[in-house]
Structures are given as structure tokens and as C-alpha cells.
Amino acid sequence: MTEIIIIAAVARNGVIGKSGRIPWSIREDFLHVKEKTLGHPCIMGVRTYESLPDFARPLPGRQNIVLTSERGYRAAGATVVHSFEEAVDHVRISNAKKAFIFGGAGVYRKALPVADTLELTKIERDYDGDVTFPAINFDNWEETAREKLEAEDRRTGEIVRLSFCTYRRKVNDPTPV
């Protein structure tokens, strides 16, 4: 069975995006995401896919699965699907050991009920934004790893504290989410 992993960077106030972009630029987080996802399928919404810089679209070394309701949509180097269920079926049929949910907020909401693992970069700073990560009931999740560090936000020049956190769904959780 394919392990479904949500991967996201989330500001203290829940922000994950602003005007179609990530509101910070933290090299250590980008490297962390690359290390975790390289070699694994990444499921993302069309707006997330289109927000990737040209040099990273599609994400190199990963099967990119783009979710859109637009029937004629084409994404060079990516697989286009039209429902979250179709995306999950696609990675399970391919016998992938892991599949990463890469965003955005709507895709995260659809993935939360079926996710096995959360890989969250928690940024200990508030950011201005217009997209937030869905609320999570952490009673249903067990933290299994946390790495704390400080890094520069290259957009602001500020040093920010962040944590790479791994959570696994509790086995006895009767209702996922």
C-alpha cells in the first residue's frame, strides 16, 4: 500500500501562500523538501504546479501529478488527473511506496482524511498571506521527529526559527482527519 504523505511549510499563523507564491524563501526548507520527495510521486493542484519556477517545473526527479478540473489541460512532463481519487489510484497502481501531497490548500484538505504521515516545516513567524493550511486535530497524530534550526528568509533577510516535524496518524484513530 502506498504511504500518503502531506508535505508543507506552514507559518505560525497558518499561512502557506500569498498571491500564488510562497511568502518566504528559506533555502533549508527547499532542500528538505527535495530530500524527502526526490524519487517519489508528487501530487499537486494546477495552481501549485504553475507557481513552480520554470527551472523546477516539472519537479525534477519526481513523477509530477497535476490535479485540475480543466479537461483539456496539458502539463509538459507531468501526468494530469481530474480528481484526487484518480491521483491516489494512479500512484497506487504504479506501486509507489510513498506519494507526497505537494499542495495547495484544496488538495491538502482532500488528502487529510487519507494521509498516513505529515511532513511539516513549522516556521515560527507570522506571514501575510491569502492561503492557509487546513486545520489539523493533532490529537489524531503522533509526533515522531522534530529537527529545530534557524535559517535566513532570503526575501526579508531575517533569521527565522523553524522545525522540520514528522507526524504519523495514530493507529487507533477511528475517524481520519
Word description of this protein:
- The chain has 177 residues and is an alpha/beta fold.
- The protein has a single domain, classed as Dihydrofolate Reductase, subunit A (3-Layer(aba) Sandwich), CATH 3.40.430.
- 19% of the residues lie in helices and 35% in strands.
CATH architecture group name? 3-Layer(aba) Sandwich
Instruction: Give the CATH level 1 class.
Output: Alpha Beta
Mean pLDDT: 95
User: CATH homologous superfamily?
Assistant: Dihydrofolate Reductase, subunit A
Percent strand equals 35-45%
Order of helices and strands: EEHEHEEHEHEEEE
- The global form is globular
When the domains are counted, the total is: 1
Q: Over all CA atoms, what is the radius of gyration?
A: 16 Å
**In this structure, how is the largest beta sheet organized?**
8 strands, mixed
Count every helix, treating DSSP H or I runs of 4 or more residues as helices. 4
Sheet/helix structural class: alpha/beta
Biggest sheet, strands in spatial order?
Answer: 5-4-3-6-1-7-10-9
Helical content, roughly?
Answer: 10-25%
- Unreliable spans: none
Q: What is the strand tally?
A: 10
CATH topology heading:
Dihydrofolate Reductase, subunit A
How many angstroms does the end-to-end distance come to? 19 Å
Defining key terms:
177 residues, alpha/beta, Dihydrofolate Reductase, subunit A, eight-stranded mixed β-sheet
Summarize the structure.
The protein has 177 residues and is α/β, with parallel strands linked by helices. Helices cover 19% and strands 35% of the residues.
